[in-house]
Design goal:
Elements lengths: L3 E10 L5 E9 L4 E5 L27 H14 L7 H12 L9 H19 L3 H9 L7 E8 L12 E5 L6 H21 L3 E4 L5 E3 L4 H14 L9 E5 L6 E2 L2 E4 L4 E4 H14 L2 E5 L7 H11 L4 E4 L7 H10 L4 E4 L1 H4 L2 H13 L3 E5 L9 H9 L3 E5 L4 H17 L14 H4 L1
Parallel strand pairs: 4-16, 8-12, 12-13, 13-14, 14-15, 15-16
Antiparallel strand pairs: 1-2, 2-3, 4-5, 5-8, 6-7, 9-10, 10-11
The structure holds 2-phosphoglyceric acid and magnesium ion.
């Protein structure tokens, strides 16, 4: 046992220039752990509350109330064993006492919970990924990345309806090779867009900010970029989409702003099904809204044998929602965002519930990020998984890819999962 001596918060700033919460945990033996809370823009209504001050100052985004709650966490957790993550997280839950971390703020709890995990790893004298594998009994491996090429939706002024147009490189032999191929595709896409006058700049997660006239134009351009990079679409490189449908649909009514069209659930499913036929898409996230269970079931019934179907806003890293969705046959994979749950232990419980059902699990960043690299370690330590970080520019994104490369030096290039997470999709069967 190594006791927690102090927990202190400070205000730092994220990749969108907004305030956020950083926490330092110091143990009795002087060992330290640190973590920073990320922040989403397209948030699920059932995820842990991101506590902001409101009011006029800093556009309502200040975090002084969340920071004040760190003092309460310090008083409660002081003296507890930092290596007992479960006990520490249970104490956080008991102190908060609400379903969505309404009293302490999910930003305060996630930074504290992760900082304790970092402190426990430092106390054991091992990197975080190793501590995660030791603590949770998992087999570490380097994850298969999902990397954004164009932003859209809430991350690019809603210039296109779909939020993330990404690639995956399941045919790569190493994590390093994924980075190389991504560089080629990313810049090929930029060149094509520039030459056609379709490039507005860079979106929130570092992907190109497009000026496309339709979602299909984005998909066409992505296919062309993969080809321009010297790859055959669908072979080593596949497409992955985050539709983030909750951002443009409620109660089974979806409004495509670009085309000024309203679709019901089944029309949206048909449209997406058409894309799955025409483009080499192996993974699709939140194809329907967070309140559209029937739509999600129908989508999974029709396409669950063909592609990975990820619940993000739909499942909000909640183990109970994952278990319900498994029983209802809605989705076949879950996005793991520690700040949606609010603690490490709840996120791991969700990860394990997904694994038990044979589901995929994708550890993910938020659109508002920082230099914190916890998720690179979580994805690697938990093993066999996937990692979604955003695009291939901007340091809050690159720091996470680069951290995986450092881990690769320790684990060896052979520890890359390669295409294994897509084993149940058309990609593996071709
Ligand atoms: C998502 C994330 C990352 P946000 O929807 O998957 O792309 O976005 O952090 O804004 O919820
Ligand atoms: Mg999402």
């Amino acid at each position: 046992m190594t006791a927690i001596k102090s927990i202190n918060g400070r205000r730092v700033w994220d990749s969108r220039g907004n305030p956020t919460v950083e926490v330092d945990v110091v143990l009795e033996n002087g060992v330290r752990g640190r973590a920073i809370a990320p922040a989403g823009a397209s948030r699920g209504t059932r995820e842990a509350i991101d506590m902001r001050d409101g009011g006029a100052k800093l556009r309502g985004m200040d975090v002084s109330r969340a920071l004040a709650n760190i003092a309460k966490l310090n008083a409660t957790l002081g003296g507890m064993d930092a290596t007992d993550q479960e006990a520490a997280d249970s104490a956080i839950l008991a102190l908060d006492g609400s379903a969505l971390k309404e009293n302490l703020g999910g930003n305060a709890t996630v930074a504290t919970s992760l900082a304790i995990l970092h402190a426990a790893a430092a106390d054991a004298g091992v990197p975080l990924w190793r501590h995660v594998a030791d603590h949770y009994g998992t087999e570490p491996s380097l994850p298969l990345p999902e990397i954004q090429i164009f932003g859209g939706g809430a991350h690019a002024g809603r210039r296109v309806d779909v939020q993330d147009f990404m690639i995956m490189v399941p045919g790569a032999n190493s994590f390093d090779e994924v980075m190389e191929i991504t560089n080629e595709v990313y810049f090929a896409a930029g060149d094509i867009m520039k030459s056609r006058g379709k490039l507005a700049g860079v979106a929130d997660e570092g992907g190109w900010w497009p000026m496309f006239d339709s979602n299909e134009e984005a998909l066409e351009t992505l296919v062309q970029a993969i080809e321009k990079a010297g790859e055959k679409p669908g072979e080593r490189v596949v497409i992955s989409l985050d539709i983030a449908a909750s951002e443009f649909g409620k109660n089974g009514e979806y409004r495509l702003a670009l085309e000024d069209r309203v679709l019901d659930s089944s029309a949206l499913i048909d449209m997406l099904g058409g894309w799955l036929k025409s483009y080499p898409i192996a993974s699709i996230e939140d194809p329907l809204g967070e309140d559209d269970t029937e739509g999600m079931q129908e989508f999974t019934r029709r396409f669950g044998q063909k592609v990975q179907i990820i619940g993000d806003d739909y499942l909000v890293t909640n183990a109970r929602l994952v278990k319900d969705a498994v029983a209802a046959n809605a989705c076949n994979a879950v996005l793991i965002k520690v700040n949606q749950a609010g603690t490490v232990s709840e996120s791991i419980e969700t990860f394990k519930a997904a694994r038990k059902a044979g589901w995929g699990a994708i550890v993910s960043a938020r659109s508002g990020e920082t230099e914190d690299v916890s998720i690179s370690h979580l994805a690697t330590g938990l093993g066999g998984g996937q990692l979604k970080v955003g695009s291939f520019t901007r340091s809050e994104r690159m720091v996470k890819w680069n951290e995986c490369l450092r881990i690769q030096d320790e684990l060896g290039t052979g520890a890359f999962v390669s295409g294994a997470p897509l084993a149940n999709t058309w990609w593996a069967r071709q």
